Amino acid sequence: MNSPSTSPGRDLRCIPCVERHHEAVRAIFNEAIVNSTALYDLHPRDEAFMRQWWQAKREGNWPVLGLENEQGELLGFATYGPFRPHAAYQFTVEHSLYIEVSQRGAGLGRRLLSALIEDARQRGFHNMIGVIDASNEASLRLHHRLGFSPCGSIREAGRKFDRWLDLQLVQRLLEPASTGGAAM
Prior knowledge:
Blueprint: E1 13-16, H1 22-35, H2 47-60, E2 64-68, E3 74-82, E4 92-99, H3 108-122, E5 127-133, H4 137-145, E6 149-160, E7 163-173
Parallel strand pairs: 4-5
Antiparallel strand pairs: 1-2, 2-3, 3-4, 5-7, 6-7
């Protein structure tokens, strides 16, 4: 994937990702899988895997929000889904956020995560969880700035690049959810 344009003062749009974004989402995922510990996957995601991923997002009515530049290039995306499959967790979601490698450090993560938080709040969710590699200081700082607090850690939860990886769990409580169930 070619690096998207990076001009100061660019006009970025926060949009729901649609079919034309599928390959860009896969490319962003795969760069993170191959070159970082942002995802604990070991192998790039193929088209079949991504079809199932998108289908689960559609069927669950889970958002996939993206940031697009003036040329329509996807610069990053964020999503959330169920935290655990049990009914009592219905107001808690786990989110993820990925930025195209050439765009990292430019404030896009803050914009996307802020939009995702607002989406979850509007849908009546109460608790948003992030599961972050403990060495990902930039992500931990971003989450702290947006009101997430550490809520646990798991030592040596995964193994990648010939080393053990620790997880840091963070959470943010959203506005109180209605008692009638999340609008999904």
